[in-house]
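Tutorial sheet, problem 5. The two components below are modelled jointly, 565 residues in total.
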Amino acid sequence: MSSKWKDFRLYVITGVNYHPGRSLMTVMEQTLQGGADIIQLRAKDMTKREVLAQAYALRKLTRHYDVPLIINDHIDIALAVDADGVHLGQDDLPLAEARRILGADRIIGISTHSIEQALRAERDGADYIGVGPVFPTGTKPGRQAVTTSYVQEAAQRIRIPFVAIGGITTSNVNEVLAAGAARICAVSAIVGSDDPAHECRSFLQAIHASDQSKPGQVDLKQIRVNGRAEQTSARHVTELVQQLGLEGKRIVVELNGQILARDAWGEAEIENGATLEMVHFVGGG
Amino acid sequence: MDSYGDYDPLIIGGKRLSSRFFLGTGRFPSPAVMQMALDASAAEVITFAVRRVNLDFAQDDSILQHIGGRELTYLPNTSGANNADEAVRIARLARAAGLGDWIKVEISASTRTLLPDPLETLQATERLAAEGFVVLSYTSDDPVGCKRLEEAGAAAVMPGGSPIGSGLGILNPYNIGLIVEEAGVPIIVDAGIGSAVDAVQAMELGAAGILVNTPVAKAGDPVAMAHAMRLAVEAGRMAYRAGRIPKRRYASASSEEAGVSVPMKAQTMAANSTTAEGSR
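Model answer (structure tokens):
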């Protein structure tokens, strides 16, 4: 697994009890269409066989969208369906054991509820951590909310990707982002909504808006991409494509009216005032 | 009859196709339905459009991620172009994606009818053919215009039956027939097909194939319609090759008249009258 997955911004966890009458696959495909860029299968009240069946189906779906699939708790199921990784709680198998079974290449995420737990997970080799529950949530009843002060602490002290989770909705997400979170996880707010795709887009809009309000780096160049004014620190097209989250996608780039072959991106310098077009294929007749 | 196409291949730009049904990928209710329809259609050529990447939602991804793993010929179109220059630019962008050098030239002059601009289409065809593209030109059902596109280097010419997405069918079958008669390259009826009946008609008129998008994507059951269209294309093609009977004004019985069996009563009466005559 390349490290591309680390660029995720919106982490969606399954929650079938939040969408009675709609199938898991339908709802999860909608979240993928809305831009969810990492998916976790969590199914606490199911038999192992049921979880396995859903894991297979989700594996197929997430492959279509080129999005990583994480399995909650069940390491064996993660291996059986060739998931990208697992997510473990504080009371699950210890990280070192899980790593031994899963190998270096699979993603291991750990739920943390304090900065001590977060630092330990980081030290023990977790690939990412969950930070929460930020707000009280029905998904984890009875657990004390950690509030945005823990998010702030994590933002300052944790170097691996961390994702804020727990009771986050489009109405309180800005608070979480302002506290320093760059990645958001939601369950009920998304899968329980009538329009999961729209809900995902709203979350992503908030996340991207927050990126822009954060202190900019020095030497930002003014450029136009697809007709829109943008600022970038990217030195060449490859960097810009990465910054825009388009790495690995089959896009075509035109810089100042010249179509660039993909292997020329690294040498194509971006100067102040550059105009770029980035296109791809969409449905059409 | 799945193997039928193997004996009657369609060759465009040196590529041998066993399916004569080209499928567009726009406006399907979901990517999953599109894929199922694609399977049901057995299409080997699929079309799509070139558009700007949505920078806010990088995951609003390219159509390509949904059709991986299939052996397909990609036919990007130049939709959105208003003149030859724009069409040439879109074609070059499409080719830079590295999925082949087929291009459907589509230059619309009016947003209401989406009817093609024949002059700009001719120019774009000429320029793109000279750049080595395999050019399939979408144009009006005008026999002279279609011939001109062929002379300009089009690998196939695609006259519309009626305006894009209208489902009005083939409004001028006489013209389509003429175009086919005079063509030295495959004629693909593109645009206007509404249902299987139109596909059969196009093929019986001698079209080498059809390109369909909206009637499948927006059908009540897109997957079933894709299958229906596929059968219609095959049926129409076979009928065309089989050779239909000429039309005539009056009936022509399908059995010999001699030897018609006659009911018993009529036979008895006939026998009596014979006896009567014989005793006379």
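Marking note: Chain A has two domains: 3-213, 221-279. Full credit if you identified this.
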